[in-house]
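Why should sequence recovery work at all? Because a backbone constrains its sequence more than one might expect. Tight turns favour small or flexible residues, buried strands favour hydrophobic ones, and helices have their own preferences. The token representation captures these environments compactly. In the example below, the structure is given first.
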């Protein structure tokens, strides 16, 4: 399950647009209380429904814009979501603007801290996530739990040390 808010952020569109797509596709969103919604009811769709929504958005992206995003450089971040309560729970992902991304996470995880961030190309995100989370329990989209956050950071260091600097690539 993924929340409409998370899906909208992933797709780079407003949540109202996602709700319109949900309605057009005949999908019925489920209202659930989650940690990320701070106990409030929030609309969610299944992973399969989210894939349908993603596919319906993709044709609207021009080839040039898709290529720009694929080649864009930014940051791969490792955020510890609740250092005191659940120190092994973390989120990883790509952001072009790291500060803005951290601010958006603070609404649902106010005590979160950025453990580290590495220069990254958007194209590398999925591979980097698979690499660093391989020994972790998947809790949600890009959210995992581990018994050793230091090991996750070490795996990320190893991954990015093997990659070229994305700012040096044309």
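From this structural description, the recovered sequence reads:
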């Amino acid at each position: 399950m993924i929340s409409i808010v998370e899906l909208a952020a992933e797709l780079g569109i407003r949540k109202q647009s996602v709700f319109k797509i949900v309605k057009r596709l005949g999908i019925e969103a489920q209202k659930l209380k989650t940690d990320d919604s701070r106990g409030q009811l929030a609309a969610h769709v299944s992973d399969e429904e989210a894939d349908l929504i993603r596919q319906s958005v993709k044709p609207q992206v021009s080839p040039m814009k898709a290529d720009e995003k694929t080649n864009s450089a930014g940051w791969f971040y490792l955020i510890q979501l609740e250092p005191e309560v659940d120190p092994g729970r973390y989120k990883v992902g790509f952001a072009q603007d790291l500060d803005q991304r951290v601010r958006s996470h603070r609404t649902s995880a106010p005590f979160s801290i950025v453990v580290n961030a590495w220069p990254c190309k958007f194209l590398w995100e999925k591979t980097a996530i698979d690499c660093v989370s391989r020994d972790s329990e998947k809790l949600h989209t890009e959210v995992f739990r581990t018994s050793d956050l230091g090991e996750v950071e070490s795996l990320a260091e190893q991954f990015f040390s093997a990659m070229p600097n994305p700012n040096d690539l044309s």
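A few observations help interpret the result. The longest strand covers residues 73-82.
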